Amino acid sequence: MKDRYLYSLRKVLEENRAFARDIEDIISDYDQLYEDALASGKTDDEVWHILGDPKEVVQELIESMQLKKEKNIKTKIVATMPFISLIIFFLLGFVEGLWHPGWLVFLLIPISAILFESKLKDGIVGVTPFVSVIIYLILGWGYGLWHPGWLVFFSIPVVAIIVNVDIRDIPVALSPFVATIIFIVLGTYYQLWNLGWLVFLIIPMLGTLKHQNKVQLVLIELSYILAIIFYLYMGYTYSAWYYGAIGFILPLTLSIVFGVIKIAINLRNDKKARILLSIILATIILFFVLGFTVNGWVWAWQVLLVIPMAGIIIYDKVRLTALMPFISVILFFSIGYFFTLFHLSWLAFLLIPIVAIIENA
Amino acid sequence: MNTQFKKGIVEMCILSLISRKDMYGFEVIDTLSKAIDVNENTVYPILRRLTAQGYFETYVEQTNIGAPRKYYRMTDLGRDRLKQYETEWRSFLEGVLKILGGNYEG
Q: How far apart are CA B48 and CA B64, in angstroms?
């Protein structure tokens, strides 16, 4: 508990750009306070209450600390970025004739605003939509790879997970995205739609690795392997793929019996998680429906942006600043693609710093 | 009670406690919270701020429970500040008590 408290405190101090010497001093003091409180007979919970929530503590401490001045330099960079972008844009246009795609330099405005004005983690997450759009447009315009180029938008939730999720949970949290990417690539380039879905099994197989009982863990993993072998054998030998799938009842049953599958039970009590899961499923279904029915692969990926937006709205308070990167990507792409106004639609990205300034004023 | 007002009182109490004897962080929190209704988690930040303002100096002393402890000792600047606080506070209290007792010139 003490380590967790000190770790949270250190993190909040770092996020608030405290100097290293202040951080070390404060952490050492709180280490002592914690030890002394424990020695006086208090429980961990009581000590946590006495010392206070790290975020509130840091708010109180800020008066007594010097904060790094880098913020001022960063603010200057953000403020001058529109002019810098304009100069680069004209240089590219007049000198090289690169009016298009030279306008992409204007993306530097929101990117610099997000990178420099937010905390590092938020900045990295916020910049991902822009980087994804750039890569997507390069893949699309440059190589005609609209599909499966849209997979690059998976980097948005993937980066958010890497940055925010506990390192031990990252493999499981990332497995749905990794599996989908492998599935789409195998299907698109090797027509392996039929076998490709097996990669989705890495999701429960990785999830099971967290199971405490090692014997049960080995049994479940072995049952997956047996089920896969049975599926392939039935499919290739008798072309009985559907019968082959019956084998997966074995790992499913074992997982339920050994208590590995309990996500559904937890979800029942967590209203927020239930809503988010429904939105994730609904958007993914909508994406594929739009893709297959009206061949909307080029633009339908935008519905996937609803997932991180829903996450922000459900788990954080509704802040337009946090939502603007996604909204502006949708505005930019929709106006650009449907009305062929890409040379104007980039202006949507200017909404990000404008909204941030208005909302935080 | 107004938070800023309360913080001012806590600040004065911390100065007063440490003017009587050198104390370590948790000792200040514990003594204060037993005597008055105080939000314990505000004590260390105030202690740190007062130290940064030069009202206390710190030194480290070995203990028998493990890691060495940081003690706070009052400086001359701290004593002056405490005197100033006490004067202001006593005159303020006198005024308040007068009003409460109905003993004031209207």
A: 25
